[in-house]
Fold this sequence. Notes:
- The structure holds two protein chains of two kinds.
- By secondary structure, chain A is mainly alpha-helical.
- In chain A, 69% of the residues lie in helices and 9% in strands.
- Chain A folds into two domains: 3-107, no CATH class; 114-249, no CATH class.
- A three-stranded antiparallel β-sheet of chain A has the order 1-2-3, with helices on one face.
- The longest helix of chain A has 31 residues, at 219-249.
- The longest helix of chain B has 41 residues, at 106-146.
- Chain B has one domain.
- By secondary structure, chain B is mostly helical.
- Chains A and B meet through helix 3, helix 5, helix 8, helix 9 and helix 10 of A and helix 1, helix 4, helix 5 and helix 6 of B.
Amino acid sequence: MDYEELLNTATDIGFLLLENGAEIYRVEESVQRILTAYGVPQADVFAIPTCLITTLYVDGKAHTRLRRVNSRTTDLDRVQQYNDLCRTVCRMTPSPEEVEKRIAKIKRRPVYGLKWQMAGYALTGGSFALFFGGTLRDALCALVISALLRLLVMPMEKLHTNSFFISLVGSGLGAALAIAAVFLGAGQNLDKIIIGFLMNLVPGMALTNAIRDIIAGDLVAGVTRLTEALLTAVAMALGAGLALSIMHMAGGM
Amino acid sequence: MQMFLPCFYSFLACFGFSILYNLRGRVLWLSALGGAVCWFFYLLMGFSGNDIFQYFIASLAISVYSEVLARVVKAPVTAFLIPGIIPMVPGGGIYYTMEYCIQGQMGRFASTGLHTLGVAGAIAIGILLVSSVFRWIHLLPVKRKKR
């Protein structure tokens, strides 16, 4: 058994889980279980949202691999697939080449294209405008603004722009569009339209993962994500607030 | 009808959200349904007249829904939990807090802001309680295998 190769494979799977938005305990446990399944006597795994370190001790020697996570996305389909892969690996202990092949297969799995993502944003924005008590016309405005918002957010995400900037600019420009829509008579309730499309930006994912990390005892990761949730919420409010202030100063409505 | 429409909107909204998280097939439909389940429980608790309590119960409900389904469908809990809590995340609260701040209504700004934090706290505690209990179950099969 080549422990270096095993270390690489296990760390890769952990890295891919972390990169796609899995919780910390899932990453640490997965790597640990894979190493145990291959008969490593002692191993330590440490993960925070931006970094993964694996060390295994064999014959009095320590082998370490560190992987830095520079960009994270939320792809729950891939989290599920890598999680399944991890289970299979633990049960059948295939060769590293075989694992490599399966990872490549998961990497080829489809992602929704820009059109679908715009449709997703539009559906969320429109439904939430109705949900919060807006009229059908408000919902249509929120729907269009949300779709445009995705068009704006997508390239920024590709450039790895930080999430606060995305929230700030997205919410600001969206609110400006909403003001224009109401001004032109297309929308009726400015607040419902803005809340509708803002729901696309709320930090639901950061909040959920923060709590789950804290429960599992990963306090550093939990607090990091809680801060992210809070800052994103503030950035959202600031963006929309800026647009509204300018509207008030311009003496509109 | 009064209860059906909001739950339906919540279902649609969560469907849109799940697309963004790249969920597919069965999991996509079930996670969208979670949004409706969550809001159904919120409305069901409407008699209490205390919306923080309503959020708390709804959060318990969606957490149980997610933990149970995750074990049945063999998907990560978060695939159901993240889209499911979205209807409760206080987007409206954040917006109105900001609006009162701009308008200089400091009393309302403070009360809305604190209420928004309270809602977020209620959601957090709901998830925390349920997930903590389910973690015991999660630890059981590992011990059995070792024997």
